[in-house]
Design goal:
alpha+beta; Glycoprotein, Type 4 Pilin; Dna Ligase, domain 1; 4-stranded antiparallel β-sheet; 6 helices
Amino acid sequence: MSILSQEDKTMLLKIARHALDAAVKGEKMSPLNVQALPAIIKEPGCSFVTLTIRGELRGCIGALEPTVSLAEDVRDHAVAAALDDYRFPPVRPVELESIAIEISYLTSPKPLIYSEPPELPRLLRPGIDGVVLRDGFRRATFLPQVWQKLPDPEDFLSHLCQKMGAPPNLWKQKVLQVETYQVDEFHE
């Protein structure tokens, strides 16, 4: 993962804020002039955009694989976090000035190999690793920031199983596909 400068982070936060405001107000978004952006922001990258109001989650959407430039990825996820997070109603214009934006720039997920379920919690690095669990067609992830609310690896894994629509103890019953990644997190 390339390192983002403070200028890059400021630019990405501005892109996210403009996209959020325009989408929520139903305004047409101006196209991104990707060629005018710094090189690292033009490169394919993946992010999660998290919206909060007074520290409470209001929306969070992201991707684990890069498909577009980092700038476009951030813009698209800012809009999706506001309007398409199934856990929340769409953000209303009256909420905009209360919303804080956080961006997590992700490294590529790497497989975490283990052979017995009891090994898994010991292999995770709380506060450092984002975790992706897969079981067949089901998949879910928690960003490293989730460790702040779920610091115990067993609780973390149980909640992640529930997020992917599985019983909370599934990780104890079988070896799942697990990947870990790290993030460069920044916010307004």
